[in-house]
Amino acid sequence: ALAALSTAHQAKPNHHLGKTSIRPDFRLFIGMEQVGRYSRNLNGDDQESKHSSMANMFFINTISVIPSKIGKYPLINDKTKELGSSKVLNKTPRYPKRTVGHMHPNIVTMNSANHDHGASVDSSHAKISKKRMYNPKNNIVLDSIQGVLAASGGDLARLDYQNSVKVVVRNDEAAQKKDKVALISGGGSGHNPSHAGWVGKGMLTAAVSGDVFASPSTEAVLAAIKAVSSNDHGCLIIVKNYTGDRLNFGMAVEKAKKNGIPCQMLVVGDDVAIENAPQPRGIAGVVLIHKVAGAAAEKGYNLEKVHEIAHAASKNVFSIGMSMTVCSQPGSVIADRLDDHTVEYGLGIHGEPGVERREIQSSKETCAHLVDYLTKRIKDKTKPFAVFINNLGTLPPIEMEVVVGDSCEALHNAGFTNIQSIMVNSAMTSLDMSGFSISLLDTSCHPEIPSLLEAPTTAKSWIPPVRYIREIAVLPCPPPEQVWFEPPKELSAEGKKVKELIRAAAMAIVDAEPELTQADLIVGDGDCGQTLKLGADRILKDLDRYPLNSKSDTLAAMAVSIGNSMGGTSGILYSLGFNAAAAVVDKEGWLGALRKGTEAIMFYGGAKAGMRTMLDALVPAIQGTNADDVAKRAAEGAKSTGAMGKAGAGRSSYVPPEALKGTPDPGATAVGVWLSAIAKASKK
Q1: What percent of the chain has pLDDT over 90?
Q2: CA separation (Å) from 288 to 61, 453, 597, 639, 663?
């Protein structure tokens, strides 16, 4: 729009301006040059705040020569309409449509006057994100800031909310002295804990938040500068390379300088997604710049020295990310450009389309592909690097841990053999995006970088680096308890019979696994069948080594087999039962042993009959007089659990009563299965 105005008035220098002694196109050119210092890229970031700052900066640099008739100034004429400037000047909606398609990340295809961040959606098939935790009638950004402050222990404070000012500052005595260089950063919200999470001694002095994915206003940034900076020491402003941030923070820097506050601004662009990009975006790597700059300022270095160190780090940090989903703002339309089988590489932290889409692969393959991007950008892989692996929002912790291991392996395989330290954090997120990014910082770019990364900070969200060790320590594990006795050289007749009964019981559980698993998927957590099968398989494997001529030793050995193979509650309960039974079987026989084992399970487990557990089969069974009677009572007891509407113990106790009815407890069913198998085999 400004380019069009400048061109138009070079052709008609006095158009609608009245008489003036200075060519308006010359003043327009000066205003354009000032804007150009802060506007260098068009990466689809917040347009409304960007246009506002461009207009402010433009008018500040032209107002002295365009006084009273500014209201008649023709902002839109035939030439500017041809260039599309009428779209730029229109009010933009909060959640616009965006065209779906494969787009270069620096090219945004728009419908009408829509310019905001966000993913491509078709409103005719739009789905609103409803299951989100926020207060619809409140400002989510202000509410999130309130949460940060509530958990800060008084170390942080906020500036009074005036208009668009959303600023978090240090609240400690040292910061209030203003005797060191102040560090300020910020940007659009939705990247939490960035940026308020980095405010603290040794990192940022203040963080300025805009609305979600929208740059904060110049007024807010200037308020932060004035609040935490001194004319003696000044401040360093660190921003990610997005036009809205460059403009609004840049405008504040110029105003602060006019007020006598020394200021410098550092723009970080660490994204390597686009090869040879003239203006790469700023993503997770900026957090590392906050840390080294903040630590340098804490050492008492002057503004020039702090800027020197931060600048060196910013030119030597490289990041690349991927995601399985596109982020969506609370209450807004959910983007659907990625199906269940597609992931995106090199996408922006505001949901901008990535440079590459692929079918989802394993973690190892995904990490290797991300490292390929880094390899293309970093020529000398033998330099010392700090690795930073960042969760983009909602990647589950267990998957994040898998990613960390695979990322380290991929880096090593690609030739990055001099990794000095590693950091893992959810540091620069993108709302609910499920993905991660890898950042590499060349720590040899300045001799103080390693120590500055490790320097202490009170910033609540910072997780310090740890020394990277490629060779994982493996310590010897104490051997599992051995209760094996020498198997008899020759089995007695009773020993042979016991062996066949055990085999029959174990095989019955193996065969029943699908049925037990299906039932547990309904009334529990789905692992009952598999857990019992593990125990049965181990018993079958160990059977030939059991001291089968001794009842007590056999039961004790079975307890060890179960303890070494079955996890969860079932495993320990069966082990307890077999150990207790082993203590009395020689004196009280098999029925007495079953009774003693059942009593041990009740005592240590804390359950009893009627609570919808295995005891509903065991308790009736111990009233039996022979194998058939025991099996029959157990089966009937197990069946009765299907009519129980509420469980008093076990995983089923967490399941709603209405979901339980009609499905017998799988643990009780299993007892009936192996007791019935024993009864049947005993007749042979």
Answers
A1: 64
A2: 35, 8, 59, 61, 55
Q: How far apart are CA 264 and CA 146, in angstroms?
A: 29
**Contacts within 8 Å (CB) and 24+ apart, 140-146:** 140/189, 140/212, 140/330, 141/166, 141/189, 141/209, 141/210, 141/211, 141/212, 142/166, 144/189, 144/192, 145/196, 145/209
User: DSSP assignment, residue 274?
Assistant: S
Cβ–Cβ under 8 Å, residues 467 and 421: yes
Tell me the C-alpha distance between 189 and 657, whole Å. Answer: 43
Burial of 154-173, coded b for 16+ CB within 10 Å and e otherwise, reads ebbbbbeeeebbbbbbbbee
Residue 411 CB contacts under 8 Å (≥ 6 apart), including other chains: 371, 374, 387, 419, 438, 440
Cβ(187)–Cβ(287) under 8 Å?
no
Given a cut of 50, whether residue 177 has pLDDT beyond it is: yes
Give the pLDDT of residue 658: 60
The DSSP-derived string for 431-462 is TT--EEEEEEEEGGGSTTHHHHHHS----TT-
**pLDDT above 90 for 131:** no
CA dihedral 200→202→204→206, nearest 10 degrees, is 50
Residue 367: burial class (beta carbons within 10 Å; 0-12, 13-18, 19+): buried
Euclidean distance between CA atoms 533 and 517, whole angstroms: 10
Confirm if 58 and 31 have CB atoms less than 8 A apart: yes
Cα distances (angstroms) measured from residue 507 to each of 65, 501, 533, 577: 95, 10, 9, 20
pLDDT category at 393 given cuts 50, 70, 90 is: very high
Say if residues 266 and 72 touch (Cβ distance below 8 Å).
no
- DSSP alpha helix (H) spans, 459-550: 493-523, 528-542
Task: Provide the b/e sequence for 195-213 (b: ≥16 CB within 10 Å).
Answer: bbbbbbbbbbbbbbbbbbb
Residue 188 tokens read as: 């659009």
Question: Could you say which DSSP state residue 207 is in?
Answer: E
Q: What's phi and psi for 208, nearest 5 deg?
A: -115, 120
H or E element in which residue 150 lies: helix 140-150
Lowest mean pLDDT among 84-88, 493-497, 503-507, 572-576: 84-88
259 has pLDDT over 60: yes
Three-state secondary-structure class, residue 341: coil
Neighbours of 677 (CB within 10 A): 22
SS3 call for 212: strand
**Strand ordering across the sheet containing 419-425:** 356-359, 342-345, 317-323, 435-442, 385-391, 419-425, 466-467
- Residues serving a catalytic function are 350
The phi, psi pair for 114, rounded to 5°, reads -100, 130
The predicted structure's pLDDT at residue 484: 57
In this predicted model, what pLDDT tens digit does every residue of 279-313 receive, in sequence order?
999 999 999 999 999 999 999 999 999 999 999 99
Residue 108: strand, helix, or coil: coil
Q: Which pair of tokens denotes residue 159?
A: 């500036």
Residues in Cβ contact with 2 at an 8 Å cutoff, skipping those fewer than 6 apart? 28, 31, 32, 35, 54, 58
> In which order are the strands placed within the sheet that holds 206-212?
156-158, 167-170, 206-212, 182-189, 235-240, 263-268
- Distance, C-alpha 617 to centroid of its chain: 45
- Average pLDDT, stretch 628-632? 94
* Inter-residue long-range contacts of 83-87, CB under 8 Å, 24+ positions, other chains counted: 83/1, 83/3, 83/4, 85/1, 85/4, 87/112, 87/113, 87/115
Give the pLDDT of residue 509: 94
| pLDDT above 50: residue 10 | no
Euclidean distance between CA atoms 289 and 304, whole angstroms: 15
**Other beta carbons within 10 Å of 277:** 17
- Please name every residue paired with 424 in a beta bridge, in sequence order, or none if there are none: 389
